[in-house]
Amino acid sequence: MADQVNSLEELGQVAEGVEAAAPTPVAAPREPVRDEFGRSYATGKRKDAVARVWIRPGSGKVTVNGKEMKTYFARPVLQMILAQPFSIAGVTGQFDVVATVKGGGLSGQAGAVKHGVSKALQLYDPSLRPALKAAGFLTRDSRVVERKKYGKAKARKSFQFSKR
Questions:
Q1: I need a surface site. Which of 97, 99, 140, 143 has the fewest CB within 10 A?
Q2: 127 by DSSP, 3-state: which?
Q3: Binning pLDDT at 50, 70 and 90, where does residue 13 land?
Q4: Distance between CA atoms of 82 and 117, rounded to whole angstroms?
Q5: Which residues, 6 or more positions from 34, have their beta carbon under 8 angstroms from its beta carbon?
Q6: To 5 degrees, how large is the angle CA 69–CA 110–CA 76?
Q7: Residue 54's CB: how many other CB atoms inside 10 A?
């Protein structure tokens, strides 16, 4: 019986040694992703809008579908939405943005460009990822319009019911 107790203690000591010796996995550092022109590309989505976004170092000029940002997104709220990733990352005025957007309305398109700019920024400089991730800019907002159902006036609204 004493031999079994000693062997159990030895097994416990060996198991502790194995756990201590096992290396802890460390994530590999992210590498910047840039093309031959020094640009980073990302796709942003919001509602039904899809934005293709290229960023490169520059003076802060933002072009959306061939137009200046201030003419394409005339409302100040939409311009503020586009400026958010740069202010959070602390790189305001350091990158030029060229974006093409299709689908949805202006609000969804602004959200799609914001998502694409955030993804492109973290691809260009991986050190910006923690700030953008904490602000929630790298997460795709999956909320979309609910489809209309058969027999309903809208997605959930029913026709007026009359008992008599």
A1: 143
A2: helix
A3: low
A4: 8
A5: 40, 123, 124
A6: 60
A7: 20
